[in-house]
């Protein structure tokens, strides 16, 4: 169930994260070792829950951004390994918490931790991982890096609460929604990219360039996820197509379709999202309305816009294989739609 989405300006060669994976491979092996080490505990349930999600096949894009952005500016110490691991733990903790808040049953194609161990264990193990992340940040000894990542943690939590405040509210505006995803998703991308030049001692302009790159990459990434929920496949998502609709989530394709619709169509959206009438029959109608009002196409256009901003943020930096790899990640995030 879904709508086929294509990009008119697709390139002959599909963009890939492989260049970034190859360039950060050795450091990512060290990050993965540290992840396993720091997820350990004498309390048996903690590594069980943590490893269930950590080993579930995510691309680890955020820690790779930290490794790549440090290497771009000639960093040669070990602090980037700890910071990249901190970033991944922050991300994993937010996933554990998100699944509880959203009452999700699937994550990356597997049962969520909350369905196996319960909500309490998911929340508390997420808290444990956040604690471990902050211990590693302190070990690094960079107050600037600690400030950036701790601020991101606070912003992410604010985003979670903001999302609750607009949940199942069809009067949510596009600006409201962008504020949610800027906090919930893009803030960690931005922080992950910024701490690399910080520990490398790069100038403020370079820090700002990587921060802007990460922020706008994160916005594009989330907007594409919104499209995939209605126009992708379960394999793309690691969850069921239409889950956002079934859970009553307000995403940009829904916001655009609601605002552009007739009074009767807006009544349908209110019944489906606010009233919980979100079964498969109504999902089909929702897909039809999203198609009629170009909700997916215009969300893609927004994602491409933020991708262009991310590309321009890196433009002043000298050419290098790492810069090329980071630029290709922008295309990869958007071309997941193909």
What topology does this entry show?
Elements: H1 18-38, H2 45-54, H3 61-72, H4 79-102, E1 106-107, E2 110-111, H5 113-117, H6 119-140, H7 143-166, H8 174-199, H9 204-231, H10 234-237, H11 243-246, H12 252-260, H13 263-274, H14 280-292, H15 295-314, H16 321-335
Antiparallel strand pairs: 1-2
Explain what you see:
Helices cover 74% and strands 1% of the residues. The protein has 16 helices and two strands. It has helices at residues 18-38, 45-54, 61-72, 79-102, 113-117, 119-140, 143-166, 174-199, 204-231, 234-237, 243-246, 252-260, 263-274, 280-292, 295-314, 321-335; strands at residues 106-107, 110-111. It has a two-stranded antiparallel ribbon with strand order 1-2. Helix 1 crosses helix 3, helix 4 (79-102) packs parallel to helix 7 and helix 8 crosses helix 9. Residues 6-11 have low confidence and may be disordered.
Task: Give a quick summary of the entry.
The chain has 16 helices and two strands. The chain has helices spanning 18-38, 45-54, 61-72, 79-102, 113-117, 119-140, 143-166, 174-199, 204-231, 234-237, 243-246, 252-260, 263-274, 280-292, 295-314, 321-335, and strands at residues 106-107, 110-111.
Keywords:
338 residues; mainly alpha; two-stranded antiparallel sheet
